[in-house]
Design goal:
The complex is a heterodimer of chains A (338) and B (549).
Chain A (H helix, E strand, L loop, with lengths): L1 H22 L7 E5 L3 H15 L3 E5 L2 H11 L7 E4 L2 H9 L9 H6 L12 E13 L23 E2 L6 H14 L1 H14 L8 H10 L4 E5 H10 L5 E4 L9 E9 L6 H11 L2 H10 L3 E2 L8 H4 L12 H5 L1 H10 L4
Parallel strand pairs in A: 1-2, 1-3, 5-6
Antiparallel strand pairs in A: 3-8, 4-6, 4-7, 4-8, 4-9
Helix pairs in contact in A: 6-7, 6-14
Chain B lengths: L2 H13 L1 H26 L3 H43 E2 L3 H7 L8 H12 L4 H10 L11 H37 L4 H30 L2 H6 L4 H11 L3 H26 L17 E2 L2 H32 L7 H33 L3 H10 L7 H27 L12 H26 L2 H9 L4 H30 L2 H6 L7 H9 L4 H29 L1
Parallel strand pairs in B: 1-2
Helix pairs in contact in B: 2-11, 2-13, 2-14, 2-15, 2-16, 3-4, 3-7, 3-8, 5-7, 5-12, 7-8, 8-11, 10-11, 12-21, 13-16, 13-18, 15-16, 16-18, 18-21, 20-21
The chains are: A alpha/beta (338), B mainly alpha (549).
Chain lengths: 338, 549
């Protein structure tokens, strides 16, 4: 007996210590946010709110998928009050799993347009991200460009660069194309893209734009804020944005948004924070930090963003991106879009 | 005291159920996710499975096999040859390379991946420069390719093989080689017929670790957009929202692991290895010819440059460009990385020690099976493992809470096992148990029964036996286990991300914040910090290893 005890006592000691440390983790009055929006893009917002309202905020960042699984596993015990993502499909999925609660708020319903929030009030978009065409000013004339479908045409054979289909932005884009054109037509479009690829899909938008600038390809699809960031660092790159599908549905948009969790221990404070996020000052800051478009139509975007000009946005409710996401992923599997 | 008494005492302990219970508890974190996966695989969801088996499985199976074979071969050869050179032969710079070749352990695979792609891809500095100077870079091999992934993963992972092969050669190689040569074998024949076969279990164990790392890797293959089982699991789970499909894929992945494992075990089958106890006598080193000496130098220098020096330089250059990101919070990131890695090292080494002792005392088939299964956690993608643990942990938490309420009424404290450091440590235990267990187990194997019996005959039994005899003999193994776990946890990303309590951002989390936004240059700063902090234990390990030699 004594032999075993001698070896295992420290082990149990360590476990007890860990449990002790674990107990220190909770501080009941602090709002807890699970955020797929990264630290550098969200902490300044939290800090501002804390300074204005005295409400302290703790947060955990991760990709939306794992965060949603974590929320799901924690169930009624979860300490999270708010789930924040950078894609509508993921909010839709969380709501679908019953992880978000309906919030009825005059302020949110007034400030956030209907197409950018859940019809049942379980989530709201706080900024708009546009996914459109970027092209090389050295090798492409803007007249040659039109909509997403045309990128599958003969003109762009070996000239197209895409980001991986694993990224949710592309899954949402294809989902929205399915909503617009139906599955068979969309499959044809995406097949055309794959046939036109100049090189294997990239793991992020920035690499893709650098490849266009370096001459590996001529056109690609990106979220506009990546373009903004890259050009802010290297203003001389021969790249420009083209607003896609202006004679049709309009540019594909997505949101970065949030909802109050189903078991939020601090539901009221969570609602207050979301309402604050829809106010002009927060809206301008939330979108401005990442060069996105504010969700509230009355707020001006950052001057850099404004300089890209106005464009027609797809009016479809972003929730469809979630409903059709699985269909979109399977479609991309079928046509070999990696 | 006679051997009979020792055996009787040991037999009494075997019957004691407490050690069995403890073994099961230690293995549970890894076993529960495995059971969840096995359950899902047995009853597949027909529609999703049809899609996967037609469009996804063929590609990822072939890709995964190619990757496994490529990385196992390349890292196996590089690791073994370098270990051979530094521990058996003499060549310029040998003393330096002996420890320096372990340094790449401190660089996370995903960091090496983004440095390689950032530097070598079409738009990267190398090819851009070539185009500016020579007008074309078309002849440069594509880094974002199967070969590129194999190359990068092998560079990142060869130290596992190197470390273990080096141990084998140091403890037996040179003397065995001398003996073989005395018996009339030529140098080459002695190498092939004696030293390599004797080192095989260690080399195989190193390659098994590399294979498991490769199978579980998500970060590095994502940078290359190379589809493997792991990426397919993530895609089914988070893209198609299908937990069942993800688990089924994980089930197929597990079959791979079990096959790799069986392979490793069978290579050890029947053989029992005891190292020579006379470790103090310095055998003479092989003197290489002038061409071989300098080839050895160039080879070792090349591997070190590609796997460590050049990547670190690139990271430093990027860090200097983004030096403005440094603020006081970095102390917090570093401190939390250290606390997590340190406590994980303590917990996992103690757990490994407990398991190794239980296995030694109760060497039954079922006990060995249990321990083997528990070490499979190393090959399961971190996120799958973490979620597989979170669900039962919440159930356990709620049950405990109910008992507390029944006992204490309304005044009962609120229990929160999930989303705390305990959950993080349990997940680390599930993932890294094998990293700690392997060195401890092989160390304990060298403490032969005759040593125990000799000690017993001198009246040293029980706690004294462990304290006075085993601990000194195991010191190097324990240090190796602790260092490997420490460095692995420093680099670990997915489990830390999903299980950490709010506010527990580490250096690896910091890297993720930047890479997930495509800002590789800004990820360099926390990556450099990981490397530098990880270097401290890596250096300690090599110093320890050095005095064994």
């Amino acid at each position: 007996m004594s032999v075993r005890f001698g070896v295992f006592a420290p082990l149990f000691g360590a476990l007890v210590l860990a449990v002790g440390l674990a107990g220190c983790a909770k501080q009941p009055s602090e709002l807890v946010v699970y955020s797929a929006r990264n630290e550098q893009l969200i902490k300044p917002i939290f800090d501002r709110y804390s300074a204005e309202s005295g409400q302290q905020i703790r947060f955990v960042t991760d990709d939306a998928g794992p965060l949603i699984e974590r929320l799901n596993a924690e169930g009624a015990n979860s300490q999270a009050d708010i789930l924040m993502t950078v894609d509508a499909g993921e909010l839709w999925h969380a709501a679908d799993l019953g992880l978000l609660q309906s919030v009825n708020s005059e302020a949110l319903n007034t400030n956030i347009p209907e197409s950018l929030r859940d019809p049942q009030g379980r989530w709201f978009g706080f900024s708009i991200r546009a996914r459109t065409i970027v092209y090389s000013t050295e090798r492409v004339k803007p007249e040659e460009l039109s909509d997403y479908a045309a990128l599958g045409g003969e003109r762009w054979k070996g000239k197209l660069c895409l980001r991986t289909s694993k990224k949710v932005y592309n899954q949402s884009l294809v989902a929205m194309l399915i909503a617009e054109y139906g599955e068979p037509k969309t499959e044809e479009i995406v097949r055309g893209w794959v046939a036109n690829l100049a090189t294997e899909p990239f793991s992020n938008d920035t690499l893709l734009m650098e490849a266009i600038a370096a001459g590996q390809c001529d056109v690609g699809l990106v979220n506009t804020y990546y373009f903004g960031r890259l050009l802010r660092d290297q203003p001389d790159l021969p790249l420009k944005l083209f607003w896609a599908d202006q004679t049709g549905q309009g540019v594909h948009i997505n949101i970065s948004g949030a909802g109050v969790t189903a078991h939020a221990p601090r539901g009221e404070q969570a609602k207050k924070f979301l309402e604050w996020l829809s106010q002009p000052e927060a809206q301008s800051m939330f979108a401005g930090l990442n060069l996105e478009y504010p969700a509230s139509p009355s707020i001006e975007p950052d001057p850099i963003v404004k300089a890209w000009g106005d464009f027609k946005r797809s009016p479809m409710n972003v929730a469809q991106a979630g409903e059709l996401q699985a269909t979109a992923v399977k479609l991309m599997d079928r046509v070999g879009y990696r | 005291m006679s051997a009979e008494i020792v055996q009787a005492e040991t037999r009494r302990a075997w019957r004691d159920p407490l050690s069995v219970v403890l073994a099961v508890v230690l293995c549970l974190p890894a076993l529960v996710p495995l059971l969840v996966i096995a359950h899902a695989t047995i009853s597949p969801e027909a529609e999703v499975w049809a899609h996967l088996s037609r469009y996804v499985l063929p590609e990822v199976t072939i890709n995964t096999i190619k990757l496994l074979i490529g990385v196992a071969l390349l890292s196996g050869i590089v690791g073994t040859v370098l270990a051979w050179l530094t521990s058996i032969c003499e060549f310029p710079g040998r003393r330096f390379f002996d420890w320096a070749l372990l340094l790449p352990l401190a660089i996370p695979t995903y960091v090496l991946a983004f440095v390689a792609v950032g530097f070598l891809d079409f738009a990267g500095p190398l090819q851009s420069w070539l185009r500016a100077v020579t007008g074309s870079s078309a002849w440069v091999p594509k880094i974002r390719s199967t070969g590129g992934v194999i190359f990068v993963l092998s560079l990142a992972l060869y130290p596992y093989v190197y470390l273990l092969a080096r141990t084998a050669f140091l403890t037996q190689g040179r003397r065995a080689l001398e003996a073989a040569q005395m018996l009339g074998l030529g140098r080459a024949a002695a190498t092939w017929k004696v030293a390599l076969p004797m080192a095989r279990p260690w080399i195989a164990a190193g390659i098994a670790l590399v294979c498991m790392e490769t199978l579980a890797d998500f970060g590095a293959v994502s940078v290359f957009n190379y589809n493997t089982f792991t990426t397919a699991i993530y895609r089914a789970w988070f893209g198609m929202f299908s937990v069942s499909a993800a688990l089924e894929l994980a089930g197929v992945l597990l079959l791979f692991v079990i096959a790799a494992f069986a392979l490793e075990r069978s290579s050890r089958a029947g053989a029992r290895f005891a190292s020579s106890r006379d470790m103090t006598r310095q055998a003479t080193r092989l003197n290489l010819g002038p061409v071989a000496r300098w080839s050895a130098f160039v080879g070792a220098a090349l591997v070190l440059a590609l796997s460590f020096v050049l990547p670190l330089l690139q990271l430093l250059i990027w860090s200097v460009e983004n030096v403005g990101d440094i603020d006081s919070r970095y102390w917090g990131f570093i401190a939390r990385s250290l606390v997590l890695a340190g406590s994980a090292a303590v917990v996992i080494v103690l757990a490994s020690l407990a398991l190794a002792y239980i296995e030694r005392r109760r060497s039954t088939r079922s006990m060995r099976m249990l321990v083997r299964l528990a070490t499979l956690g190393y090959a399961i993608p971190g996120t799958v493992l973490a979620v597989g643990i979170a669900v039962p942990l919440v159930l356990l938490n709620n049950q405990l809470q109910n008992w507390l309420r029944a006992w204490m009424g309304e005044s009962a404290p609120v229990l929160l096992l999930q989303g705390t450091l305990l959950a993080v440590l349990i997940a680390y235990l599930a993932r890294f148990l094998t990293v700690g267990f392997n060195p401890v187990e092989s160390g304990l194997q060298r403490v032969t029964r005759s040593i125990d019996e000799a000690a017993a005959s001198l009246g040293v039994v029980g706690t004294d036996l462990i304290r006075k005899v085993h601990v000194p003999l195991l010191r190097t193994s324990l240090a190796t286990a602790a260092t490997l776990v420490f460095v692995d946890v420093m680099k670990e990303m997915p489990i830390t991300l999903i299980t950490r309590p709010p506010g527990w951002d580490t250096l690896a989390v910091r890297v993720w914040e930047m890479t997930s936004e495509g800002e590789w240059e800004r990820a360099a700063l926390p990556a450099v910090a990981i490397v530098l902090v990880g270097l401290i234990p890596a250096a300690m390990l090599t110093r320890r290893g050095a005095h064994v030699a």
